[in-house]
Amino acid sequence: xxxxxxxxxxxxxxxxxxxxxxxxxxxxxxxxxxxxxxxxxxxxxxxxxxxxxxxxxxxxxxxxxxxxxxxxxxxxxxxxxxxxxxxxxxxxxxxxxxxxxxxxxxxxxxxxxxxxxxxxxxxxxxxxxxxxxxxxxxxxxxxxxxxxxxxxxxxxxxxxxxxxxxxxxxxxxxxxxxxxxxxxxxxxxxxxxxxxxxxxxxxxxxxxxxxxxxxxxxxxxxxxxxxxxxxxxxxxxxxxxxxxxxxxxxxxxxxxxxxxxxxxxxxxxxxxxxxxxxxxxxxxxxxxxxxxxxxxxxxxxxxx
Length: 304
What we know:
Elements: E1 4-10, E2 24-29, E3 32-38, H1 42-49, E4 56-60, H2 66-69, H3 72-81, E5 88-93, H4 96-107, E6 115-120, E7 127-130, E8 134-140, E9 148-154, E10 160-161, H5 163-168, H6 176-180, E11 185-186, E12 192-193, H7 195-198, E13 199-200, E14 207-211, H8 220-223, E15 229-233, H9 241-246, H10 252-262, E16 266-270, H11 280-289, E17 293-295, E18 301-303
Parallel strand pairs: 3-4, 4-5, 5-6, 14-15, 15-16, 16-17
Antiparallel strand pairs: 1-2, 1-18, 2-3, 7-8, 8-9, 9-14, 10-13, 11-12
Binding site for Zn(2+) 1: 63, 65, 143, 213
Keywords: Endonuclease, Hydrolase, Metal-binding, Nuclease, tRNA processing, Zinc
Subunit structure: Homodimer.
């Protein structure tokens, strides 16, 4: 099974602390690398993560609060200094487009690559990126400004060939792709071997959902149903539910409720308020609702 990993670069909230960086992640899937949000300090965290700058092929921005996008201009500038030539695709709310244009004109002239901006509608769930390996969907969220999460879905793979059956019936290599795509095999003496005897089922496709800043949404579980890993902001503990509602954020209990109702594999908490020196309280509260919960932390790499 090919790697599907989440590299946590930053999991703090808006107020800087000495413990956490602002929001940023890298999604690694089948040799491709995608950045999700790009707060201040992202470049330093990329260095520490050993994810090469030149490997990033697209960046997905959830919303235009600084702790999720202030690192983007500097990162683009660095791409230029590193001699990048491949296009950089940036996805985000429509309002990001003019801001990005202004930054490029002021600070990033002479780039040897193009920055291609794709406006994402934050009010409906839709596929915003599609290639042979995966799709990325937008997930509408409820924050103080236009905001969406992103859902990374691996595409199904072909079944696995049983080497013992290939050897047993002396099937030529030229027929392997045909068998993977559903064909059987007839031996020289006329014996037909059906496809399902020659193959093993492919591993189920995996999915990862990134739910950035959002007020608790009772219907959000429908959009992320059954994903292997859910990242959900958990800015506050349950005692600060009123504050979460006021600022359009979620508590750890609310994040766990979404995970439970969506029947996800695991829940990853993040976007912690600066008030917490230790997020163990948030973890305990979430695990009381959804036991398979873990805390994000800079440098953490989670396999999906």
